[in-house]
Design brief:
Number of domains: 2
Distance between the termini: 19 Å
CATH architecture of the largest domain: 2-Layer Sandwich
Largest sheet: 5 strands, mixed
Order of helices and strands: HEHEEEHHEHHHHHHH
CATH topology of the largest domain: Beta Polymerase, domain 2
Strand content: 5-15%
Number of helices: 11
C-alpha cells in the first residue's frame, strides 16, 4: 500500500497547526496540516512494515502512524502534544475521537523536561544568529516565546492550551522586530523561571498513563485485524 493511500484512506485525525492554530497567523501564513493514520493490522504481518510517518501528499502536510504518534506523545514530545490540542480539527472519525479523549493520559510532569530541552535547542540557534548577524530570526523568537508560555501554563494548570489569546499582539511585535534582543531574552528567562517554579507543584502526574494508552492501541489493532 502506497504511503499516500494510507493518509488518504486511513486517517483518523487531522488538524491545522502552526501560526493558524496558535492564533498568530497573518496575511500569507502557511497552512500546516498534521494528522494520524491507522495502518491496517495485516500490513504489520509482512516483512516490510508500514511507514511510521508520511510527508504529504499535500504541501505542508505530515502524518504519523498511530503507534508512533502514541509513542512520541507518551515521551511528551512538544510537537505531538500540541497536535493533540489543536483548536482547528479538520477530520476526526470514531477512533480519532477516542484518541482525543486520551489527551490527558499523555500529559505528565515529563513535559517540563522535553519542552525545556526543545526550547534550549531553539534558543541556541537564535543566539547563534545574534552572534553572526547581530539579530535573531524574529519569527523564530516569537514562536519560542509562545512555546515557553504554553509550557509554563501547562505546568501551572495541567491543561495544554496552544492558542495565544491576549498574547497575540505582544508576540507579533516580536516577530516584527519591535523589541530588542535584550528585552526578548529577559522575557524568555522569566518564562523559563516561572516554568521551573511551576514544575515543583504542578497538578500533572509524575508519568503518563502508559497502560491506558496501550490498552487503546491494542484494542484498535485487534479491531483492524478482524
Amino acid at each position: 500500500m502506497q504511503p499516500e493511500t494510507l493518509v488518504r484512506d486511513h486517517t483518523i485525525y487531522s488538524c491545522v497547526m502552526g501560526s493558524r492554530a496558535f492564533g498568530l497567523a497573518t496575511e500569507g501564513s502557511d497552512t500546516d496540516r498534521r494528522g494520524v493514520f491507522l495502518a491496517p493490522t495485516p500490513l504489520f504481518w509482512r516483512f516490510e512494515k508500514p511507514p511510521t510517518h508520511v510527508e504529504g501528499p499535500a504541501d505542508e502536510q505530515f502524518s504519523w502512524e498511530l503507534e508512533r504518534f502514541c509513542e512520541l506523545a507518551l515521551r511528551a514530545n512538544p510537537n505531538i502534544l500540541e497536535c493533540l490540542h489543536s483548536p482547528l480539527v479538520e477530520h476526526v472519525d470514531a477512533t480519532g475521537r477516542e484518541l482525543l479523549a486520551l489527551r490527558e493520559a499523555f500529559l505528565s510532569r515529563r513535559a517540563h523536561g522535553t519542552f525545556t530541552r526543545y526550547a534550549l535547542g531553539q534558543r541556541r540557534k537564535l543566539e547563534a544568529d545574534v552572534r553572526l548577524h547581530g539579530a535573531p530570526r524574529w519569527k523564530h523568537a516569537m514562536h519560542l516565546l509562545r512555546l515557553l508560555t504554553s509550557s509554563r501554563d501547562l505546568l501551572r494548570t495541567g491543561t495544554l492550551t496552544i492558542e495565544v489569546g491576549a498574547e497575540r499582539e505582544p508576540l507579533l511585535a516580536v516577530k516584527r522586530g519591535e523589541l530588542t534582543w535584550s528585552e526578548v531574552e529577559s522575557w524568555m528567562n522569566r518564562l523559563a523561571r516561572e516554568a521551573d517554579e511551576a514544575s515543583h507543584h504542578s497538578p500533572l502526574p509524575e508519568a503518563p498513563d502508559h497502560r491506558r494508552v496501550e490498552d487503546f492501541l491494542v484494542r484498535v489493532r485487534r479491531a483492524s485485524a478482524a
